[in-house]
Amino acid sequence: MIKGLYEAHLPVRSVDRSITFYEGLGLELSHRAGDGLAFMWIEKERSWLGLWDTDCVELAYHPSIRHVAFQVALDELKQSVAWLTERGCSPRRAFGFEPVEPFVMAHNGMAHAKIHFPDPDGNSLELICPLENPGDVNGMMYLSEWEAIH
Question: Which band of pLDDT confidence, cut at 50, 70 and 90, is reported for residue 64?
Fold first, then answer.
């Protein structure tokens, strides 16, 4: 029945500012629903991000309510620190890893490389890529360390 994620939603202080920000990340505006709501295509005709203009942006951060992860290709993820910086985004420390390069979280036969960064309203965004984990490695490390052992 469930085939994937169709939409996610984030609170923002300014829909116009957020449209500009997410267009800078490569998302495309699908449509606006009044002055305070916009939908950005993550993957056209497959998934979108709803941006809601609200005074409730100051909610305490918790990944269950203010986090979106965008899947990217590994080659793109390797360039993500420079790519984000060029767009005025600051990769942030996550899970004890400094944002000098993506890091890997591996467990239960799967692995993902990732990097985290905030949007202008402090919502947590992530670029993530699944990795093969044939040796069933468990743990966390920088992507360069992962590649050195694979």
Answer: confident
- What local confidence, expressed as pLDDT, does residue 2 receive? 63
SS3 of 77-100: the string is HHCHHHHHHHCCCCCECECCECCC
Contact between 150 and 106 under an 8 Å Cβ cutoff? The reply is no
Total number of domains in the chain: 2
Those residues whose C-beta lies under 8 Å from the C-beta of residue 95, and which sit 6 or more positions away, are: 103, 105, 140
Kindly tell me the burial class for residue 71, based on how many C-beta atoms sit within 10 Å of its own C-beta (0-12, 13-18, 19 or more).
Answer: middle
Do 11 and 73 lie in one domain? The reply is no
The whole-number average pLDDT for the span 92-120 is: 95
Domain region containing 126 = 61-150
Q: What is the spatial order of strands in the sheet that 110-118 belongs to?
A: 67-71, 124-131, 110-118, 103-107, 139-142
User: Using an 8 Å Cβ cutoff, are 128 and 69 in contact?
Assistant: yes
Same domain membership, residue 79 and residue 142: yes
- The number of CA neighbours under 13 Å toward the Cβ of 70 is 24
Structure pTM?
0.90
